[in-house]
Structures are given as C-alpha cells and as structure tokens.
Amino acid sequence: MAAQVSTAMMVLAQPSDGPRECPFINSLPLQIPSPLPAEYAHAGHWLDGWKLAAISRQAELLDRLLALRPHIFNQRPIHTPEVTLKWVDLYAAVLAVPDVTRHPAYAWLREYVATCPPQGSHGKAVKYLSGPRLDLLPPLVDRDAIGFEAALDRALEAHKEYWSKTAKRRKDPEGFVALDLTALAALAWDRGLRFQVDSDYLPWSWVTGELFARQSVA
Q1: Which helix (H) or strand (E) element contains residue 20?
Q2: Which of 108, 153, 208, 212 is 20 to 30 A removed from 27 (C-alpha atoms)?
C-alpha cells in the first residue's frame, strides 16, 4: 500500500485538464477531480516509491515511476538538492541499464561521497549510509553473490552504527529498517544472487519476497 500511495501522489501531481483516475490503490480506480499540488511530485516521494515498489515486487509501479522520472526534473522545487536528483537517476538506471556502475550518476555520487566533508549530520549520513550503499552496486552488476553478501553486511553494520549513535537517532523510525539496502538486496535476490545476512535492519522475508508472495496467495 505504501508503494502505491507514493506512486499515486506522483501520478496525481502531474498537470491535467480534468479528473484523473488512479488505478493503484488496492486495484480500485480512484477519481481525483484535480491534480494534487506540484510539490507532491518531488524526488523524495519518487525515491520512497521506488524502494517500496522494489521490495514489494510491484513491477507496474516501478514502470510508472520510471516513466515519471523526467517530471521530477521538469517540475522540481528550487530547493531540491542535486545529490537527491542523482539518486533518482541512479535508481532508475539500476533497472534500465546492464551496468549501472558506468552510468554518470554513479560516478557523480562516488565523487560526492569521496569529497563530502565528514563533519556535521549530512557528512556523517553520506559516510555511513550513502557510501556503503554504493558499494552494493558493483557486485550486483557482476552477479557476485559472495561480494554482494560482504558489501551488504558492511553496509548494515554502518547503518547500525549511524542510527544507534545517539538517543535521538535510535528513536527515529527512518532508521528502523534499512529500506535502501533492503530494496537493493531484493533486486539482487530476484536476479539470482543467493546470500545470507542476519540483521534486525533487514527483514529477510522482504528480501526474498516471501512475505508478499504469502499476501498475494491470501
């Protein structure tokens, strides 16, 4: 449902001359009389929708998000950070190109991680979250299950270190599940990589898709 809502907000924020039907919510058509405010079509909602759709194996939503990607850049609020848009580019490329490590967004983000000052909250997030996340992509491209497992284990340890560092972070729901890592692990699993990582931040039934298979049968 969360993936459907994120995608629906993106769809319904696009310009329209009249009512628009959104088919995603529980597969029932939903009539919206006018577009949502343009600010709903922002990169954060796109990234949330991508991660949740990848985890829940909703290919139709991923296709719709890829089609909406150009609107992120055409309608973006002036304050949208460039690094956020690069993540949109990179996650779109993960699905669309054979070797995402050759994509310009990957090179840009690698340089950003390498040169970002480690001081401050943003610098620490880049060090502990963004860098380790990028390390998953080379073994994903190479279909190297052993390398992917090792990179995933390191990324989860970095996630744990970052989100358990202070009392405030420990209470922040954003850190309870490593959604980016779970989404990339789900993609790797669906591409045939077999690995085993034990972490409270990585729901294993989400990685394998077992949870969503049970729900579809029910």
Answers
A1: strand 20-22
A2: 208
